[in-house]
Amino acid sequence: QESHVLVKAAFPLNLVANYATYEIACGAIQRPTQPQTPVEQAKWEVSALRWADLSDETYGISLLNDSKYGYDAHSSQLRLTLLRSPSWPDPAADRGIHNLTYALYPHSGNWQSADTVRRGYELNLPLQLMSCPAPNSDGDQSLPPLGQLLNLSAQNLILTTLKRAEDNSKQWILRCYESQGNSAELLLESDLGLSIAYPVNLLEAPLPLPETSHNGQIFKIAPWQIASFAVGMGNGEWGMGN
Prior knowledge:
The chain is mainly beta and 242 residues long. The protein has two domains: 7-124, Beta-galactosidase, Chain A, domain 5, CATH 2.70.98; 157-233, Immunoglobulin-like. 6% of the residues lie in helices and 37% in strands. The chain is built from two helices and 15 strands. It has helices at 38-42, 116-124; strands spanning 7-12, 19-24, 27-32, 46-47, 51-55, 59-65, 70-74, 77-83, 102-108, 157-164, 172-178, 184-187, 194-200, 218-221, 226-233. The strands form four sheets. Strands 3-2-5-6-9 form a five-stranded antiparallel sheet, covered by helices on one side. The longest helix is centred in the middle third of the chain and has 9 residues, at 116-124. 21% of the residues are buried.
């Protein structure tokens, strides 16, 4: 119930890193842990999304969380801001009971090879189990040993959207981004029978097929690129409108 009290969770680590990496929207940003310039020194706390990471050449620690967005780092320490209790613009901000989850994820190598981006999503979007009634059928009702609703075929591609297209009721829009600063190849695999028709921009207007696509189904995704595609059932041959 206090006002103007800053509460942080601090994690001293047995490593020395010159840079910390923080998740931002559809990407990551690297910042020095030993700031030199006045601008760097003023950033004693920075905003980030689901994770921050300290790594040296062989080992690292990622700090994951589900609802807090203020971090700071030194060469051997990560801290996460839990409460600030300001009085402006909301005089009752941060008062009351808070429920939050954070976790340390130790890993070998850097955050890219450790799939820290996916670990952050897994903490925020845990697997949910649903019980469904069995269909009324006399046939085999057993499930296959392996299934995939949507598989982008590359670990560094993150699916962000699957929505119905605004102007074509027979199509869906799939949007993904490259999350590690490396190029990737997108090949959509789906037990739902979905395939890519053509790439689109953020307004869902069709784009020409790039020369790097193979049979219109394998696409080169550039580092940090946000890519959108029109998809549908069948072989991907649909009109570009209603």
